[in-house]
């Protein structure tokens, strides 16, 4: 028997995904560039259901919720919101607007980085928090092992110019970048630097409904959380106790 081999214990990422919304959600997940794609055993989460997604320890990528999905006779799988090129297993990000939960596991200093992003707009309320309080919490850092996300319904508070309507009601809120394609909203061109891309009235409206989510590309100081341990719970339609 081989002896003497020292293996560092690097644990996989474990994500518990919970649907507290009144509607059925099909989970969307896509890995970052250069990270191995995930294949989910199942994508559908009925109201009240929970699923577990396991990833490699160094995984990075994003989760979102798709709604109004169905499989066509031609085999495509299309969703009214958050669709990923007509596939059940996403290989590209969801069609905006879609609320995102973003992760980099075991990044700089072996920390996990996570946030809720409204940079691609908003469709469903989402929250994310480390299981059991997480590992390596720094009590003097409010962004250490905290809960990210919001309970507020941004669809209700969406500026008129950004609203996406479904059957009579607002089902999504576009980002100002997606809606207007202008440098000051997209942080492109002369607004391409953190110092030149500032909050706008639109990003401020997002921020008001969802204070600790990313509202535009360079919003990172107030929105990125760090923790360790690789175990997190993501809730769709969270209540105050999930935050
Ligand atoms: C904890 O957070 C505070 C505030 O951000 C920081 O100054 C300090 O260096 C951190 N401590 C450790 C051990 O990382």
Automatic annotation (TrEMBL):
> Is Iron included in the keywords of this UniProt record?
no
Q: Which InterPro entries match?
A: Osmotin/thaumatin-like_sf, Thaumatin
Alphabetical GO biological process terms: defense response
Q: Does the keyword Cell membrane apply?
A: no
Q: Which cysteines are joined by disulfide bonds?
A: 21-237, 69-79, 84-90, 145-227, 150-210, 158-173, 177-186, 187-197
Q: Which PROSITE patterns match?
A: THAUMATIN_2
Database matches in Pfam families: Thaumatin
Residue ranges the record marks as coiled coil: none
Q: Keywords of this protein's UniProt record, alphabetized?
A: Disulfide bond
Member of which family?
Belongs to the thaumatin family.
The name under which this protein is listed is Thaumatin-like protein
